[in-house]
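Here is one chain, start to finish.
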Amino acid sequence: MKLFALAVLCAPLLPISTANAQTYGDLDSTGEKRDKEKTSKRRAIQEAEVVREIERGFYAVAPIGSTAYLGTLAAPGPSGNPILRPGTYLALGVGQDFVDQERLSMAWEVSLAQGLHNGEVFSDLASAGYPANQLIQGDTRTITPLAMLEMSFYPIRRWGIGLRAGGGMMFTPYLVNAQYFEEKVGQPLPPIHATPHPVVQGGPCLEIYTKLSHLSVGINVDIAYAIGWDLSATGAGYFKYTF
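Its structure:
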């Protein structure tokens, strides 16, 4: 009788103990799952916060420098100065590094370049009998849309040395009214300005990545030939921001 009474008293405690054991087990597994989730989130945040010292990718670039003509337009004019003198060069462009390796990068770039040059007076050239390919309107502006490819190697981690090549179309618009010009000079405007001139160009480049991870500076030296215009050399330093 005593054993029966003891069994009756202990029976209600068995499910409770089992339930408690299961509950504690569930809590332990839930805690482990939460710890894993927290660790995973922490790792993802740390990886997202990694800052690259050298950024490559989509960029904007602004070269500024000077262009000098080397062929027919560099010949002495009536004043003794070149027919078209060295002048300022300014461009704005965008591009993208489509190859990004530790020792090698490749990029495409499109830009709009402008040049501004002082030139000999047209009437002086005409009266001196200069040929048609040297008869210019005087001071001249050039506007050139360009597409370029660049490949650079990195002998030093932050220094890239490479080559650029590409081409575009040069426009040398009239800077005076045609009717006014003909009335004052007595001759039509020189035809060399009337048509666009296809351009091929290329040359070496140097890029230095600064301690600011998105900003680099560099120098481009391009030799260009504009068909129907002249051979030229351009040296330009630039600032580049990579997004």
